């Protein structure tokens, strides 16, 4: 069965964005881009909430053609073009999008159906609201967190209203030169 892995940049105090959705505090550099690029190139399915999907859709399809496109921009743009996209949205239902499935209801059944299809891990990018819904339904199988060296004090938290403990097993850690630390966990289902 395929696994859903939540890929998220977070602050040291557990926020994924500032109070107004700001992400200008996230540190990324070529070292992180190369590392992440290798990992996501193995994935064939990306999962987004509506807001993140629309942000990605407005940027990645044409970014490889930009005269200022970096190596990362070109590689990620090509990956984005071929990856199957799943979007959680109540407002986008009924839309017919190429290589994209919209899930607007029956979240648990719809996600479990995708998890039982052939393929690699399903990578959940950003999308805090979608992440909260998936956590609530116990559908996330792992967390790939990039802890940024900053304390925001307020903002959009990664974890909210957790009803039961979620036990995790640490798979790997990595320290990047820019000060970001990767924490890679799998959910302990026992």
Automatic annotation (TrEMBL):
GO molecular function, one term: 5-amino-6-(5-phosphoribosylamino)uracil reductase activity
Name of the protein described by the UniProt record: Dihydrofolate reductase
GO biological process, alphabetically ordered: riboflavin biosynthetic process
Domain (Bacterial bifunctional deaminase-reductase C-terminal) ranges: 2-180
Annotated InterPro entries: DHFR-like_dom_sf, RibDG_C, Riboflavin_Biosynth_HTPR
Lineage start: Bacteria, Pseudomonadati, Bacteroidota, Sphingobacteriia, Sphingobacteriales
Residue ranges of coiled coil: none
Domain of life, per lineage: Bacteria
Pfam families: RibD_C
């Amino acid at each position: 069965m395929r696994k859903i892995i939540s890929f998220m940049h977070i602050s040291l105090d557990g926020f994924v964005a500032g109070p107004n959705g700001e992400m200008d505090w996230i540190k990324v550099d070529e070292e992180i881009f190369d590392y992440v690029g290798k990992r996501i190139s193995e994935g064939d399915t990306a999962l987004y909430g509506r807001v993140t999907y629309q942000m990605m859709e407005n940027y990645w399809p044409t970014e490889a053609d930009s005269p200022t496109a970096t190596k990362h921009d070109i590689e990620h743009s090509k990956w984005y073009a071929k990856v199957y996209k799943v979007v959680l949205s109540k407002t986008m239902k009924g839309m017919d999008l190429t290589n994209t499935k919209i899930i607007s209801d029956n979240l648990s059944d719809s996600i479990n159906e995708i998890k039982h299809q052939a393929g690699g891990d399903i990578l959940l990018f950003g999308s805090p609201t979608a992440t909260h819904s998936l956590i609530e339904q116990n559908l996330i199988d792992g967390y790939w967190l990039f802890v940024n060296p900053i304390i925001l004090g307020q903002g959009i938290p990664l974890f909210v209203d957790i009803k039961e403990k979620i036990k995790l097993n640490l798979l790997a850690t990595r320290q990047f030169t820019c000060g970001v630390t990767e924490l890679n966990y799998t959910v302990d289902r026992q």
